[in-house]
Each structure stands twice: as structure tokens, then as C-alpha cells.
Amino acid sequence: MIACQLCLSSCSSDPISRLRSLCEVIDEEGSSFNGEDWEGVIAEFEEIQEELAEGTYSQEELKEIGRLEARFYVKAGSKLGGSYMRGVKSEIEGIIEELDNTDFEQIMKEEGLDELFEDH
To answer: Which of 9, 35, 77, 91 has a CA between 20 and 30 Å from the CA of residue 85?
Structure first.
């Protein structure tokens, strides 16, 4: 059943919609997944990640992707157990710490990208 739902979502839409659908499937049915179901979910997530890496997205789409990925990690982590969730939490804390310590304006200047983000 779960594999069928994942196949249907992967066959029909863009990667952002597929990620949204995958999160919804986890929300609705994740508590009843067995090991094989989780393997399918993770394989689908990895496939979506590969497709997302190949695309070009607007700032708003990138925000949506970030929200959906965070939702996936939180929901999948809560269903997969404490040790997985602790690992995800540690990774997220590391990302936040690095972002807090990064001077994006300086990086943009150094890379010659600052004009891309100026208000016109």
C-alpha cells in the first residue's frame, strides 16, 4: 500500500510536490509503517533530493523546500526513534550554529554576488 502511494506520487509531479506528498503520507500513516515501508520512504526522499539538486528554484520555492525537508526530518525522525531524532537534532543545531557564524554579506561581496540581492 505504502509503496503504491509513493510510486503514484513519484510518477506524477515535480519534486517539490512529491516532497510535500511524502510528508503527508508520513503524517497520516507513518505510525503504521514497517521496516520495508521506511526503506521505501527513505529511497523516495533520496530520489527527490537528487531531482531537487538538479533544478533551479526561486527564493520562495527554496524556502518551501527547506520547510518540507525540515518537516520530513522531524516527522520521519519521530517515527524512526530517539537515536535517529537525536542525530537529526544535532545536525540541525550544527547548521543553525554555522549560519549564525556566517557573514553572508561578506561572502556575497567576495564572490561578486552582492548585486543579485540588491533591491531594484
So the answer is: 9
